[in-house]
Structures are given as structure tokens and as C-alpha cells.
Amino acid sequence: xxxxxxxxxxxxxxxxxxxxxxxxxxxxxxxxxxxxxxxxxxxxxxxxxxxxxxxxxxxxxxxxxxxxxxxxxxxxxxxxxxxxxxxxxxxxxxxxxxxxxxxxxxxxxxxxxxxxxxxxxxxxxxxxxxxxxxxxxxxxxxxxxxxxxxxxxxxxxxxxxxxxxxxxxxxxxxxxxxxxxxxxxxxxxxxxxxxxxxxxxxxxxxxxxxxxxxxxxxxxxxxxxxxxxxxxxxxxxxxxxxxxxxxxxxxxxxxxxxxxxxxxxxxxxxxxxxxxxxxxxxxxxxxxxxxxxxxxxxxxxxxxxxxxxxxxxxxxxxxxxxxxxxxxxxxxxxxxxxxxxxxxxxxxxxxxxxxxxxxxxxxxxxxxxxxxxxxxxxxxxxxxxxxxxxxxxxxxxxxxxxxxxxxxxxxxxxxxxxxxxxxxxxxxxxxxxxxxxxxxxxxxxxxxxxxxxxxxxxxxxxxxxxxxxxxxxxxxxxxxxxxxxxxxxxxxxxxxxxxxxxxxxxxxxxxxxxxxxxxxxxxxxxxxxxxxxxxxxxxxxxxxxxxxxxxxxxxxxxxxxxxxxxxxxxxxxxxxxxxxxxxxxxxxxxxxxxxxxxxxxxxxxxxxxxxxxxxxxxxxxxxxxxxxxxxxxxxxxxxxxxxxxxxxxxxxxxxxxxxxxxxxxxxxxxxxxxxxxxxxxxxxxxxxxxxxxxxxxxxxxxxxxxxxxxxxxxxxxxxxxxxxxxxxxxxxxxxxxxxxxxxxxxxxxxxxxxxxxxxxxxxxxxxxxxxxxxxxxxxxxxxxxxxxxxxxxxxxxxxxxxxxxxxxxxxxxxxxxxxxxxxxxxxxxxxxxxxxxxxxxxxxxxxxxxxxxxxxxxxxxxxxxxxxxxxxxxxxxxxxxxxxxxxxxxxxxxxxxxxxxxxxxxxxxxxxx
Length: 913
Known about the structure:
This protein is an alpha/beta fold. Among the domains are: 2-161, no CATH class; 235-294, ATP-grasp fold, A domain (Dna Ligase, domain 1, 2-Layer Sandwich), CATH 3.30.1490; 486-727, UDP-N-acetylmuramoyl-L-alanine:D-glutamate ligase; 733-899, Alpha-Beta Complex (Protein-Tyrosine Phosphatase, Chain A), CATH 3.90.190.20.
């Protein structure tokens, strides 16, 4: 049994609404073997992992998996449950799993959910799955040692997990419906989308002052700045030599504190120093650039200020143990560190205690000593949580004078978020004002620009404070959810055109639209990334751009299956149509499978959002019957060319809205009211109505744009100035080359080819069409055959060429299959073969007669357009008046069609063949 591949679904997907990992698992020798076939396997597995007895499985109650295990289930299913149990054993909160046949005997897809705050690049899911495979194999072979080695996995999980501060912000954001993405395994978060996007790095935001951070990072500058403003701070000064440090001790008197001038987390801070020797040692330990301050008496407090408000306060108690008269100090420390809340560094709410041996010795103890019952032994001099301290919540006890002091300190440093460290007799009492010549008895000892939140999130005593929510509220005031208007477009054909039309309409008035399509990513009309950009990474590229005001996301099948969605919810979802394409890929065998995948876009339209559906397509109509689409919680808007569709008639009878073609007009229909928007004959790209699929695309775009707030006048005006050759290149792009028309389109499946050829027949007639055709090599044979038959019915002359990348097929295999099917369908068809587009396009032009149209079907647009430009093709309406030329022979030979007389056509002139 082995894992063949692993892919991460970073957003909502066809399996569940949360991130997941999909492993392709090959059973090999376990193919066809069930657990009941292996004597003693269920019992051995349950002894090794008793927690499996609580797994529900399909039964929906504890014990469900055990029943399946004993009754007999495949080992892929067992691996799924073992992986989930391993995850829970290391504290990784996952519970969903599913095992599905991959369509090949002995091969399964194992789907396991991933925590929402886990990095999309985490290696942990793969490690857990491999550990599950190894464990199942060992138990099946009776070679299991009896010990599950979780140490490495637990350490990896802890290292990659978001820290408490970051996790608190993520949780608060999700609770308020704010989109949040974690960057790699760091504490860097992106909250919200587009122009409403904000960044946070733990408790630092993109509005945190860089000057304030630098001031707080230099303890001497902080102390002086606050002292000059009349804030009570301890007397102190900077020292760069041991002599200077000792001189400050003599000046202030003991006890003093020595700490690094730019230290953090209480590292190398030494308290209670009273002799020159102690100060010298502390000076060297602190790095020889230190602050020496008179130590203030009292208790240690931390006050958290967020956006001008005191949101939490805690008393910090330095790490210590209390004797019980029986255990040694070392045993007491070990007992304290066994607390599951303690971990290495900042990964958990408490940090493991590492005793300061010098401090222990100063108290007269050794780690092997047994302190009397009730005796406290201090293990760290500072009260930082990073040195093992604990916290007690005192938020409700903060005196108003203390709160005002903390707000003033935060303002003096110019910080939006700050942790103010104070040493006071009692935080419930006012702080005495600074008096000239008088000793400061309590005041500010430090200011932290990126304060840790752990002490407030899980105090050892007192109420936990939701400080993550306070930070999120400050970043997104007035209940903002950080979202921008977003439309997602999917379907089989027309996705790119509809997405471009929506973006074009919405860009009225200078609105900056982010757009992803099959060809590229555009922001404000400019290409920023050129690729097939219909997956989640491209969506995140747009949603993460702080200049984008509206997002329009073409969302294709491949991205949905292989990576999931790049967003959680959209405001508008558009389904153009669902027809046979990509079947046989990614486990999709039927149109019903394809509809299931496309339905994800409909399912992830937010409550109250708008679902734009094609009323003329039976598969699209069926989507409203799916439970997860929840049409009752969304506004459904139908579009279509047939106003008599029963679903439309019923819809309008309820007073709802649809966008339809009526009496030659693109029309908005609401109840009994009809509002004509534009004549079909005037719609750019519809060729006077000869391209009804272009009308359907426009109706879908109108519906989506109106749902996102576009005004009726803007819709009509922007539709009218849409230039297909410029704004929608490669989709029904019409060029002229002499007296021959060239029609460039990405039609690559039977439905698209049929729609395109119907348009050409209406414009030029069925006998005037030539095609330069390539079809994708990753399509199933029956789909290629269906496409070939459609083309054979629509043209009399064809040049067939290969994609640059035929996929798993041998070069020439697709063209051979297509030619065979075309000739079987139309025996008298003139068909020739070419190596690539550079041969195919000139050959097709040589086949054309004066007044003909050449359909160029491409895989990559730019090279084809460049070639046509080299040949002299110009956009229709700009080409020179054609010159009548000598007609070609009636039946030229294939060789002459391919190679001719060595010349190529140019504008206004055709090469004789």
C-alpha cells in the first residue's frame, strides 16, 4: 500500500466547505482484501488505537467504524480513520474523512480535512497519511512494536501551528465572517479582500507605526521619551561598559535591574542586583549594551491597549514552584511542565519552565533539594510568560487613572496596539503623579509594540479576554466584514466571455475591477499575470490586491477539483451551461459528475446573494434542486433565449426577475413588466444576431452586473462600447485577409464548435467554411470523435494540426483520430494534416476561395494572432478592399495545400495554389 500523489484543496471544495487534502492511495497486495479477511486485524488495530472506537463513520454514532471494521471494509477506508485518529492524538482538530474509489481497482482517493488555520503549504498532512499507511501495514503484518511514535509528528504540528495570538485573530475574524488567509507557516495574516484588505502579523497591524515600533524596541529611548512627558518611570540610564553599569548602581542604589537595551521576551534580564560583581555579570550576559534601572517595588502588570481602549489587563507571576515536603525542586518543575498548556516557545498558552539556576542558588537551593510544604522557590527573575510565568486577569480592577496613563503612553509612542508593562503596588489604586525630586514608587517599566496575547487569552486565574476580537474590531470598525463585491463564473462554454463582459460593465465610472480568466489576471484592465488563471491562486491574487474594488473570477473545473475554491463565499454565482467536456479526467465520467463539480460555485453564493442560471440548459436548471444550493436562501435570476421555458414562466409569475431575448431585444423581465435594454442586432459580438450564444453570454453578464449594483443605463452603455477584438480577444474574433475572412475562436468541445459553426453558416453559408483545427489531447476519444463529427457537418475543407503539448498521447494521434471520424462522417471532405499552427493556418488560407471564411481553432492565442498579423490579417472593418484573384483549382493535392508555391497570403492578395 502506498501514496501515489497528494494535493491540497485550500478552500471550499466538492467534498466539504473547509480545506482538505486528497491522497491517491494504491493498495497493491491489499487490492480486494477486506479487514475481515485478515485474521485478528480489527482487534490488533483497536488495541493499538483505542480511540477508533469513538469514530462514528457512516453510522453517525460512536462505534460506527468498529462495526465496519469487524464486518469488513477496505484498507483505504481504514487508513482514512487511522490518519484522523493520529491527527487528534497530536492535538490537530480534524474529524472529517472520506474514501472514494478512483475508478481503478485497488486505487482510492482518501480525503481528510485540514484545520482552517493550517498553512496551505504544510507538510503535516502528508506526514500523517504516510504514518497511517505505515501503521496499518505493520498491524496487518503483525509487526507493530506496540508504540506509536508521535513525538516527531507532534513537534512538527506544534512548529507549524499558528501561535495563540495569531489563532485568536483568525478565530475572531472568521466569527465575524471576515475572510482570513495565513501566509505560509508564519504569523502573517491577510484579512479581508481588495480595497478593504488589512494585514496583521500577530498583534501588529499594517497601521502600526514603524516609528513607534523602533521607539519601543529601544528601552532607553522609550524611558527618556516617557520621562520627558512626565510619565512615572524608574530612574535609569544606558551603559556600554561594565564600569558605566556599576556607576549607575552606585548612583541609584540597589536593587537595580540590568536588561539589554533592545531585548525581548525577558531574555537576559536580571533583577534584584545590589553589588558591583552582580551588575558586571549581568552586564556581560545582557550583551554589553544595556539599561540599568532602579528596581521598582510592587507587582508586575501588563495592560493591553488597542485603538485607544484598554481591552485587558493581567498580573504576571514569575515562574515558581511550591514545595510539598516530598518532591525535589526538579520533580516539582517536571510536574509543572507536564501541564498540557505548556509548550516550547510561544506555541501554547504557557511556556515550559527552564529554571534559572543562578536565581535558585541565590535563594539557597539546589534542584535536588526538597523544599518544605508551602515554600515558594522562584525559578525566573522576570514575569514574562516566555520564561514560564503565569497570569491572573485583573481587567475589571484597573483604576481609571492607570487606564488613562496607559492610553497616554500608547499615544506618546504613536502605536495602535501596545502592551504596557507596569510595576505597581496595586493596579486598583491610582498612580501617584511624578514629583520633582521624589522617588517613583510605581510606574511604567516597558512598552511592547507587538505584545503577546497569551496571558489574556488563557489566564491561570480569572476571566479570559477575547483580545483577538478587539484587534479585529479595531481593524474593521462598524461591523465591516472586509469583503468587496465578488462574482464567480463557471460553466462549460462562455465563461471567459461572460467574466470579461461583467468586468467591462462594472468598470464604468472608474471602478477598479480585478478579473481572472483562462488567459490572464487583470487589474483595472491591465494584465498583471499571463496564464490559465481560473484556479484559487489566481483568485487570491485578485482578492489580495489592495487596489481592487470588485472581483470577477472565472472558475474552471480543473481548479475546483484539484485545488478547491480561492474564496469562501461570493455575492454572485453564474453558471453559463453544462455540456460534455473534460469527461474521463479527474474522476469525471458523466455530465452529472461535471454538474456536481460546477454546482460548487452555486453552493458557495452567500445567503442573500444572487445565483444567475441558464434557463435553456437542463443541467443548469437541475442545480436548484440540490440541497446544498439552497435556492430558498439565495436570489435566483434566470437568463435565456427562450422566454417560454416553464421555469422562467413560473419564476416571473412570482414577481421575480429574469433576463431574456424577446422580440429581438435583450430584455429585463420582472413579473409582468418588460424593460428592453438593447437590440440583439446591435450587440457587439453577436454579428447581427447570427451568434445567439453571444446573446446568452450578454444576458448572463447583465444579470450578474445588475446584481452587483450596476445601473441600467451603465449596463446598456458599457455593452454598446464593448469591443470584442480588444476586450475579448480569441473569442469569435473576426479578421480580414484580402477577400477572405478569418474567424478565430477557442471552440474546443462539441457544443462550442456547433455554436460557432452555426454562426458561420448564418453569415457565410454552409459551403463557404474552412477550418484550421486542433483539439486538446487530454480529451477522451468519444469527445474528440463527437467534435470531429460536428466539424465534418459544418465545413467542406479542413486542415488538422497538433497541439504543442498532446498530453499523454503520441504526436499525431489526435489528428489521426479526428481525420478518421471526419471522413467517416463526410467521405468527400477535403482534409489535410499539418505539423503545427504555423503550417496549418497558411494551408487553410490556401484552401479558401474568395468570400470564404476560415475558422481558426487554437490552443494558445497569442502565437496564432502573431502569425495572422505576419500574414497581413487586419481586424474586420480595417482591412483594405479585397481584390478579386484567380480562383484555385477545384481539387488541389494535399501536398500543394500544405506547401503551395512557397508564398503566403498578404493583405489584399491571395497566393495562387
